[in-house]
């Protein structure tokens, strides 16, 4: 009881000393933030303070754009709001950043960064990053930083992905609804199985994916290099994505929404309206697995779903009413005899999801081709890295899910296993397609059939 009384006296004293307005970017070890007080980044881009969404009676510490206070980019106590405005943000005597009830002394949130270093300050950087650092240390050797604990928004300089050394996974989570900032069901993260790809989920259900990283970009993504930069790091220590701006007159953010979408937005300096530059739902084909198994989604076609060549609808009656969920099945069964097999080269697509697959980063495309041919279960193969002519080997086993056409990206190739009996049928329709065939005769001698 004596300890609690001393702590409450300490908080009350600091509150009285701190005054009623704060425009500084730094909270010292003998300072506090209470309702109505804020920290402000040095360039006045971001502000930190207490807020209550739509007067809900729940109070949070958040960071928002100074000019757009309704856009909250980070929240400390998403899961533990205060029930009144008597909260205080302070640095505890042992160096933790904490949100407490100034009346009872109850701790609602803590950075849990304590290293028993009393000479700690909290600073709101111009990037929107709230950091704990040693008082005399101006380097980026932070004791703790909010960028390691994202809410629903990715800001430039913030890493989305993995620290492979510690196992830490940074991802963004939507609000529960537009008025409740507690963690919702929608998450956007960098998946680390096989080659990395972005996955948007509702609970455990995948609702969008970017396609795997191919050495240059994610195979199903749009390139906006003229507006903002995309940085992707993949080594033994880290796997992360980070974006930045090309023009300092442009503000950008990536936000995941309770409705089930993730959007990259930009704002030009002096503007008042955010523009959506990229979205997980640019068109209907972004809906994960919309066309079912062994099919391709083509935004510019009507209907948008087609079976891959050599496949037919599993249920024609369902396809006739635009229900594609049952997908497609092979028209001609496969054989394991090599001279009965050919591969269809399909270009300009988002590669299938990595559900049943193998990855060998050292194989050439020719070696990958040979391995797939020898394995009766291999349904398709592709280079895992398209740089410098291509390298690495993806092999898919089982159904091919979530293929999407990108006609402007012809260099994205996948080679699908086909029955040789389909060859004559293909030749008849070749001039109406963009496919090429590779088939094997005898000792795996292949011919490239090009009809003109």
What would you say this structure looks like, in words?
By secondary structure, the chain is mainly beta. It has 3 domains: 1-149, Agglutinin, subunit A (Orthogonal Prism); 151-282, Agglutinin, subunit A (Orthogonal Prism), CATH 2.90.10; 333-449, Hepatocyte Growth Factor (3-Layer(bba) Sandwich), CATH 3.50.4. 9% of the residues lie in helices and 40% in strands. The strands form 9 sheets. A 7-stranded antiparallel β-sheet has the order 31-33-32-35-29-36-37, covered by helices on one side. A 4-stranded antiparallel β-sheet has the order 1-10-11-12, with no helix packed on it. A 4-stranded antiparallel β-sheet has the order 2-7-8-9, covered by helices on one side. Mean pLDDT is 86; it is low at 1-22 and 430-452.
Q: Report mean pLDDT, rounded to a whole number.
A: 86
Question: If you compute it from the alpha carbons, what radius of gyration comes out, rounded to the nearest whole angstrom?
Answer: 27 Å
Kindly estimate the percentage of residues that lie in beta strands according to DSSP: 35-45%
Structural class: mainly beta
Helix content: under 10%
Major sheet details: 7 strands, antiparallel
The dominant shape is elongated
CATH topology of the largest domain: Agglutinin, subunit A
- Discrete helix count: 4
Number of domains: 3
Low-confidence stretches: 1-22, 430-452
Q: What would you give as the CATH superfamily of the largest domain?
A: Bulb-type lectin domain
Strand order of the largest sheet: 31-33-32-35-29-36-37
CATH architecture of the largest domain, by name, is Orthogonal Prism
> What is the CATH level 1 assignment of the largest domain?
Mainly Beta
- Termini distance? 90 Å
- The total count of strands amounts to 37
Keywords: Disulfide bond, Glycoprotein, Signal
Function: Involved in sporophytic self-incompatibility system (the inability of flowering plants to achieve self-fertilization).
Organism: Olea europaea subsp. europaea
Protein name: G-type lectin S-receptor-like serine threonine-kinase At4g27290 isoform X1
């Amino acid at each position: 009881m004596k300890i609690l009384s001393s702590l409450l006296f300490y908080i009350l004293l600091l509150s009285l000393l701190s005054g009623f307005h704060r425009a500084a970017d730094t909270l010292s070890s003998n300072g506090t933030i209470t309702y109505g007080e804020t920290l402000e980044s040095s360039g006045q881009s971001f502000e930190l303070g207490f807020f209550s969404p739509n007067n809900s009676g729940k109070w949070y510490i958040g960071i928002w754009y100074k000019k757009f206070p309704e856009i909250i980019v980070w929240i400390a106590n998403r899961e533990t709001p205060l029930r009144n405005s008597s909260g205080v943000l302070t640095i505890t005597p042992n160096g933790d950043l904490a949100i407490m009830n100034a009346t009872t002394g109850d701790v609602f949130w803590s950075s849990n960064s304590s290293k028993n270093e009393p000479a700690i300050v909290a600073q709101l950087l111009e990037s929107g990053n709230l950091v704990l650092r040693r008082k005399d240390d101006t380097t980026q050797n932070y004791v703790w930083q909010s960028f390691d604990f994202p809410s629903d928004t990715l800001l430039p300089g913030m890493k989305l992905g993995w620290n492979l050394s510690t196992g830490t996974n940074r991802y963004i989570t939507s609000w529960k609804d537009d008025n409740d900032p507690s963690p919702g069901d929608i998450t956007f993260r960098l998946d680390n199985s096989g080659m990395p790809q972005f996955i948007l989920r509702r609970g455990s259900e995948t609702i969008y994916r970017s396609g795997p990283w191919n050495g240059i970009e994610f195979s199903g993504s749009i390139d906006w290099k003229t507006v903002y930069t995309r940085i992707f790091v993949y080594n033994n220590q880290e796997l992360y994505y980070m974006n930045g701006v090309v023009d300092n007159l442009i503000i950008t953010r990536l936000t995941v929404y309770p409705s089930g979408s993730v959007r990259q937005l930009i704002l030009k300096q002096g503007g008042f309206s955010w523009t959506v530059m990229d979205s997980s739902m640019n068109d209907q084909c972004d809906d994960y697995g919309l066309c079912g198994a062994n099919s391709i989604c083509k935004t510019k076609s009507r209907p948008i779903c087609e079976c891959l060549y050599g496949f037919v609808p599993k249920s024609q009656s369902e396809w006739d009413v635009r229900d594609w969920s049952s997908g497609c099945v092979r028209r001609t069964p496969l054989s394991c005899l090599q001279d009965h097999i050919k591969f269809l080269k399909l270009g300009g697509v988002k590669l299938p999801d990595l559900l049943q697959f193998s990855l060998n980063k050292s194989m050439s495309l020719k070696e990958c081709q040979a391995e797939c041919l020898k394995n009766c279960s291999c349904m398709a193969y592709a280079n895992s890295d398209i740089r410098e002519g291509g390298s690495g080997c993806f092999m898919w086993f089982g159904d091919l899910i979530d293929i999407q056409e990108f006609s402007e990206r012809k260099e994205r190739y996948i080679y699908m296993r086909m029955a040789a009996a389909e060859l004559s049928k293909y030749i008849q329709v070749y001039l109406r397609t963009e496919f090429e065939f590779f088939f094997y005769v005898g000792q795996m001698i292949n011919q490239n059939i090009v009809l003109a």
